[in-house]
Amino acid sequence: MEAGRHLGGVAVREALALDNLCTMDVHKLFAIKPGTKVRLLNFDPGDTGEFSDKNAAVAATVENVKKLAEVQLKLFAENKRALLIILQGIDTSGKDGTIRHCMSGLNPAGVTVTSFKKPTEHELDHDFLWRVHQCVPGKGEIGVFNRSHYEDVLIGKVRKLAPAAEIEARYDHINNFEQLLADSGTIVLKFFLYISKDEQKKRLQQRLEDPTKNWKFQPGDLEERKLWPDYIKAYEAALSRCSTKSAPWFVIPSDKKWFRNLAVSQAIVDTVKAMKISMPKSMLDLSAVKVV
Amino acid sequence: MEAGRHLGGVAVREALALDNLCTMDVHKLFAIKPGTKVRLLNFDPGDTGEFSDKNAAVAATVENVKKLAEVQLKLFAENKRALLIILQGIDTSGKDGTIRHCMSGLNPAGVTVTSFKKPTEHELDHDFLWRVHQCVPGKGEIGVFNRSHYEDVLIGKVRKLAPAAEIEARYDHINNFEQLLADSGTIVLKFFLYISKDEQKKRLQQRLEDPTKNWKFQPGDLEERKLWPDYIKAYEAALSRCSTKSAPWFVIPSDKKWFRNLAVSQAIVDTVKAMKISMPKSMLDLSAVKVV
Fold first, then answer.
1. Which residues of chain A have pLDDT under 70?
2. Among A261, A30, A174, which residue's Cα sits nearest to residue B4?
3. Checking CA distances to A256, which of A108, B198, B216, B245 falls within 20 to 30 Å?
């Protein structure tokens, strides 16, 4: 039955027997303590923690995905809480890849991934949290945001897409909104995938040179790259002002994709473990029921 | 790198080297030819085709999921066509399990699963296709419907939830709607998970007896079970009238879960193979671009 191990549901029964291939405390290492004034200069995007070996990190990531698949079924059955994972990062930082590596293996029936693009006219007719609020996960679900309301204090700030005072007010609105989600049973985890400027250059060049990656290339990415220092500043403000106890920011070193995947998956697994989700008991008296 | 094989993206590069563990022609065996008058008595819900061995079927299913993960990335990059998978079946027939087994392993960023429940007041204020239309997959996406607009000619017909003439008109509306999707580049596959009445009894009893399955038990299922012959008739009408070349119905023998999973995954893989999706070329002249 080896072959069945990786099919979500089947994996569930075996997951409890898994080892702990990664004991790294991602919260301690990479979560931003509320109130910290973040300077990204103090973080190393090339950091790989205790892992020097790619193979070991990949194995630990696979293990994490299996553990998450096991918890997912319980989360769904419990039908009380939700998990929202927010991914942010400069172009090419690996938001898509993180989702593919950390979420493939889960049952897609319980996962909603929303990729936020440039807002439509209709969306712009509303406050900046309106379109985002519609996409938060319901009870029992895992929601993933590929970009998010943070764009409104990132590109929004860098490109001056709204008056400065309006953007300034958004940090509080974001904190209030995330607190509402937390109070309603949604665990919020926010990952900033931090790459170096050199690593971005390498990845953009790959998109130009590798025919299988050409389709990913957007000329606009080069324009954004010119604003690198402004984006760093905007990220520092968001990380400093919006990392809270109930919705922490993590700065994930992401120059090494395999370490990025491991760190994100480990943070999620540690979080859901702490949620102590168990299979619910039926509220009905089933002993009296007869099937004819 | 064995450990990385099952992580969607990583699996892609290895998928082409896979064997063909299942050569069963699911279209020929289980697709309903347009115009056929379907009698479910002529189908065996316990059929397992050429497979007597559960292990072999599970291995072939895993292989199919890997193939599908490979095609998924191309479908996304191509950004031209979509795939819509519709699952219908009497209570306990295994719609959830089919999704878990056939879809876990895909990148959830490209898969949207919609479970249609009893319509809300707001939904009932619109035509029966309104809420469904909003959930069809966009270009490059895979959509899965757990129940669908067919409920409106199934429970709708059995429970007389609308005037008979209105329900009668729905078959044509459904065919027109699915033709619209097909004309817009969406491949539609519809699976009726066919179980026997005895098998349903067994599964309902399991939900009562197994504490880990108690949460799935709904007293309403027993009421629906009493209407078994009416549901069979309603399914026969839908299968007879709405299996078209561009949106075929399959009657999947589903008493054996492992065969059900294999047959559904095989039908999907055969379909996407016939789509001949390839990585798109960039429309831009990338040779002139410099990253600085």
1. 1-19
2. A261
3. A108
